[in-house]
Structures are given as structure tokens and as C-alpha cells.
Amino acid sequence: MAQSANKKVLVTRFERESVTGFVQSPGGFTADAVEVLTPSGSLLRLSYTEVKAVCYVKDWDNNETWQQHRAFVTRPKTHGLWVRLRFRDGDSVEGLVSNNLLLLEPDGFHLIPPDPTFQLQRIFVPRAALNEVQVLGVIGSPLRRKRTPAAEAKDDQLEMF
Questions:
Q1: Nearest to 20 by CA among 2, 34, 38
Q2: Model confidence over 99-158: pLDDT tens digits?
Q3: Which own/partner contact pairs does 15-24 have at CB distance under 8 Å and 24+ positions apart?
Q4: Which residues are registered as beta bridge partners of 19?
Q5: Within a domain: 154
Q6: For residues 59 and 49, is the Cβ–Cβ distance under 8 A?
Q7: Disulfide check for 38: which of 21, 50, 104, 129 has CB 3.0–4.6 Å away?
Q8: Whose CA is closest to 114, among 154, 52, 65?
Q9: Is 63 a domain residue?
């Protein structure tokens, strides 16, 4: 049986103001909507067509902190697919998604933002909010294997006979 937890989120929408609340993980995401429990105790069911991003945050103090730190300054070091997501409104954000295709969800993408130590820890972006998903790089590809020290030592030595 999977454990569930309530996570603090900031739900950014296209046409309306943002909503703060809690999302039950993993049960808060249904096939067509995200269910958010507001701090006042009401349960909102927000359709993926109106949601731009569900931002997992540490605090609700600064609602628009997800707007900062939207692109990597240098190549990321964590393993995964480095992607750029372009929203319907022309906006974009970069992040890392899992390099395991079994973990991709049919309703959207969970990604790690460029600076997860900041206010923003993780982002869920519904597919309905996107126009384009670009893979910018594969970080930590299993195709590039590190050489073993024994193989390096063998290459350095000259054969005499």
C-alpha cells in the first residue's frame, strides 16, 4: 500500500489568480483535474486546461517565486533529461525529468526546477498547458561508461615483446 502525504503547493493558472493549498500525493492528481485543499478547508477541483503549473513550495509567503530561476545557468549535474517546456501563453521553464520512461505520466510532467534549494522544490506541468517539450540534453547517460582504473593502467603501459 502506497503512503500518501499532503504537500504544500501553489497552483498557477492561466486566466485567474494563483491558488495556495495542499495536494494529496499521489491521489490528488486525477485523469482530468488536480484536487487542492485550501488553507480555509475547501476542496477545489481545478481542470488541467486552466492550470499552468502546480508548484511544490516550502512556504506560501511569496506566491510568484516560481517565476524566478526558470533556466539553468550551467549544465545540470543531476541525472535525468534536461527539458524546456513552452506554455500556451509563450512562457517557458527548464527542468529535469526522470530518464525512466516508465515514470512519465499521461497527464503531465513532474520536473525538478533549476534551483530546487530555493523556495520551489518541484513542479508538475499538465500536458494541456504546453505547446512544446524540448529535450536539451541527457545528463548521466548510461551509454557513457567510466573507464575502470585497471583499463587505464593497461593503456598507459607500452608492450615490449
A1: 38
A2: 887 888 888 899 988 876 667 788 999 999 999 999 988 888 666 666 666 555 566 666
A3: 15/50, 16/50, 18/63, 18/64, 19/44, 19/46, 20/60, 20/63, 23/54
A4: 11
A5: no
A6: no
A7: 21
A8: 65
A9: no
Boundaries of domain holding 82: 5-57+69-142
For 8-34, what is each residue's pLDDT tens digit?
888 989 888 888 899 987 677 888 889
Do 92 and 85 meet the contact criterion of CB atoms below 8 Å apart? yes
Q: Which of 32, 29, 33, 25 is nearest to 8 (CA)?
A: 25
pTM: 0.79
Q: What is the pLDDT of residue 119?
A: 75
What mean pLDDT is predicted for residues 83-101? 89
User: 135 pairs with which residues across the strands?
Assistant: 83
Nearest alpha-carbon partner for 52 in 101, 83, 97, 89:
89
Instruction: List alpha helices for 46-136, DSSP H.
Output: none
Number of domains forming the structure of the chain = 1
DSSP 8-state symbol, 29: B
Say if 12 falls within a structural domain.
yes
